[in-house]
Amino acid sequence: MPLFRIQHNTKYSYDRLIQESINEIRIFPIESPDQHVLEQDLMITGNPEVQVFFDYWGNKTGTFNLLAPHRELIINSRLLVRTPESTDLHINFVSSFSELPVESAGNLKMLELSNPDPIHSQSQILEIVQLVRRPDDAVAITINNCSDFVFEQFKYIPGITNIETTIDEILEKRAGVCQDFAHILLQVLRTMHIPSRYVSGYICPHRTGLRGEGATHAWVEAWIPGSGWTGIDPTNKVWVTNNHVKLAVGRNFTDCSPARGSFKGTANQHLSVLVSVDYEDGQSVEEIHDVQTGKEPTPVDSRHFSPAAQQ
After folding, report:
1. Distance between CA atoms of 142 and 80, rounded to whole angstroms?
2. Pairing of strands 3-25, 70-82
3. Tens digits of per-residue pLDDT, 263-300?
4. Residue 59 C-alpha from the chain's centroid
5. Is 193 left (phi over 0), alpha (psi -120 to 50) or beta?
6. In angstroms, rounded to a whole number, what is the distance separating the alpha carbons of residues 95 and 226?
7. Which of 31, 92, 217, 267 has the fewest CB atoms found within 10 Å of its own CB?
8. How far apart are CA 170 and CA 184, in angstroms?
9. Which H or E run contains 229?
10. Pick the CATH number of 97-255 from 3.40.50.620, 3.30.470.10, 3.10.620.30, 1.10.510.10
11. Distance CA 123, CA 17 (A)
């Protein structure tokens, strides 16, 4: 039962004073039989009161305001998380596509997660479906084939995309990072009407050599009849076990952004994130990441974008 100490430090710096910063955070790990949050300390510049609620997707979400003029905002989360599940897979590899409508009947969220986004390059997605789906394959086998395809056909190149890169742009580049791999896999699975959702979280060090170890990460959960929501990581070509710590789920990155908000002012902003993970045997991994949002701040309502899945 691995035990991880995780620090997630998000720092916004501004080249002049800004004010009335209004923020929303999703940095509270999901409590489930698969992971237990033993401790969490949250420290925020100015020590504002954090109002907590559960959003549409069931994610624990915090909101806070920092009204006083400031040139820096730091959100620092320190976690102690245990993931009791073993690395053994408990997946139904025989359930068929005919069972999907039965288990999702009447569930509006499942329906929403079963339909692909409208994109210009959907014909390319259909070509991928034709390559990976065989008529008699079970749902889980098809999901695995789709993940393998994304891993093998898209290059992992940090910095080539940003948090606003579209599916059409990813298909054109045939490259990206974990957020991009997840978005492509979601589009492929939903084209086959497999309910699928985006997941943000961390990969923790376990001497596995996985891409993104010790950093924020993104993967996919797909609905498998007889198994329910099951995680698969196309960036690493693996099913998710107890090395992944889950923060939030949603239809896409926007639903899971660890931190976002707005402020009043004309300042330019710089966003950097430090994530460090300590394993119980003393192994430690640390990543510092400067984030490109792909958009310059606007004079009055400047957006904060989070690097949730850009490692």
Report:
1. 35
2. antiparallel
3. 988 888 899 999 998 877 767 777 777 765 444 433 33
4. 12
5. left
6. 7
7. 31
8. 8
9. strand 228-233
10. 3.10.620.30
11. 48
With contact defined as beta carbons under 8 Å apart, do 24 and 260 qualify?
yes
Show the tokens assigned to 138.
């079970």
pTM exceeding 0.85: yes
Residues in the chain: 311
Q: Are the C-beta atoms of residues 173 and 161 closer than 8 Å to each other? A: yes
Which of 72, 74, 69 is closest to 14 using CA atoms?
A: 72
CATH class of 3-83+257-304: mainly beta
Place of tokens 């009055």: 300
Among 153, 104, 184, 158, CA closest to 291: 158
* Contacts of 289 by beta carbon, 8 Å cutoff, 6+ apart: 215, 216, 272, 273, 274, 275, 307, 310, 311
Domain parsing of the chain, residue ranges: 3-83+257-304, 97-255
Q: State the Cα torsion 303-54-232-162 to the nearest 10°.
A: 0
Q: What is the pLDDT of residues 7-33, one digit of tens each?
A: 999 999 999 999 889 999 999 999 998
Contact 243, 278 (CB under 8 A): no
All residues at 6 or more sequence positions from 135 whose CB lies less than 8 Å from its CB, including other chains: none
Give the ranges where the chain is alpha helix by DSSP (H).
Answer: 100-104, 108-112, 122-132, 139-153, 167-173, 178-191, 253-256
Task: Report the candidate in 131, 141, 53 with the shortest Cα–Cα distance to residue 96.
Answer: 141
Residues 6 or more apart whose Cβ sits within 8 Å of residue 107: none
DSSP string, 94-141: S--GGGHHHHHTT-HHHHHTTS----TTHHHHHHHHHHH--TT--HHH
